[in-house]
Amino acid sequence: MPARPPSPFRIAIDLVILTIRQDRLHVLLIERGKEPFKGQPALPGGFVRAGEDLDDTAVRELAEETGIDGRRLYLEQVRTYGHPDRDPRGRIASVAYLAIAPDLPIPVAGTDAATARWAPVDDDLLSPGRLAFDHHVLLRDATDRARAKLEYSPLATEFCQELFTISDLRAVYEAVWGVRLDPRNFHRKVTGVDDFVVATKERRIPPTGRPAVLYRRGEASLLHPAMLRPGRDSGVRDA
């Protein structure tokens, strides 16, 4: 059998942009303004230009399609998707990026998007056919990456402002994992992880109750001991 000729690829960048809004994990979606899948919700993204680095494409597409400055977001590659039938326009591989930041603004739709909005990440959104292309797979994989990394890395602090309370941090874990956590056990575990968070001399004074200590992120790149999800640490049901 003769060898098949190389298949020409176009490379796209798709962005899974996560933030916490109203105590729930949200993802940024656009309504596609062009075919294919015109009028359907999708992840923001676009094609890599000649001479452009992948990271630069991700930052540019964030600005063009949503008005968000990607240079201040946590950004990492999740994986590359290259199934032959994933895009009706031809052989297009997509490099998915996970982006995270706290308190992101209401997005502004760009040139290729009719509208842009924040949507709660739930089972319906992760179902086949809910998003254009195979974007439900990209969203699922990126969300799974974030949920897993909360266990062994300080990724949760990327959802917080520079200074935060332990309650703020607990709200991140609860939103991303979709669970309720015991406040006292959570505080004990977080402060028991070497250099995860560092207490400052500042306090947040709430309308009622006692002032809360403000923390900042420590220098740890890996959490030891890990912050295991409920049900994964010998049957203990809370963090």
Topology:
Layout: E1 10-21, E2 24-32, E3 41-42, E4 45-47, H1 54-66, E5 74-81, E6 92-100, E7 113-120, H2 135-152, H3 166-177, H4 183-191, E8 197-204, E9 212-217
Parallel strand pairs: 1-6
Antiparallel strand pairs: 1-2, 1-4, 2-3, 2-7, 5-6, 8-9
Walkthrough of the structure:
The protein is α+β, with helices and mostly antiparallel strands and 239 residues long. It folds into two domains: 10-148, Alpha-Beta Complex (Nucleoside Triphosphate Pyrophosphohydrolase); 153-217, Arc Repressor Mutant, subunit A (Orthogonal Bundle). Helices cover 22% and strands 27% of the residues. The chain contains four helices and nine strands. Strands 1, 2, 3, 4, 5, 6 and 7 form a seven-stranded mixed beta sheet that branches. Strand 8 (197-204) and strand 9 form a beta hairpin. The protein is elongated. 31% of the residues are buried. Residues 233-239 have low confidence and may be disordered.
The helicity comes to: 10-25%
Low-confidence stretches: 233-239
Number of strands: 9
SS-based class: alpha+beta
Give the strand content: 25-35%
- Run of helices and strands: EEEEHEEEHHHEE
CATH superfamily membership of the largest domain: Nucleoside Triphosphate Pyrophosphohydrolase
Tally of structural domains: 2
Alpha carbon gyration radius: 20 Å
- Large-scale geometry: elongated
Report how far apart the termini are.
Answer: 58 Å
Under the CATH scheme, the architecture of the largest domain is Alpha-Beta Complex
CATH class of the largest domain: Alpha Beta
Give the biggest sheet: 7 strands, mixed
CATH topology of the largest domain: Nucleoside Triphosphate Pyrophosphohydrolase
The tally of helices reads 4
Averaged pLDDT: 90
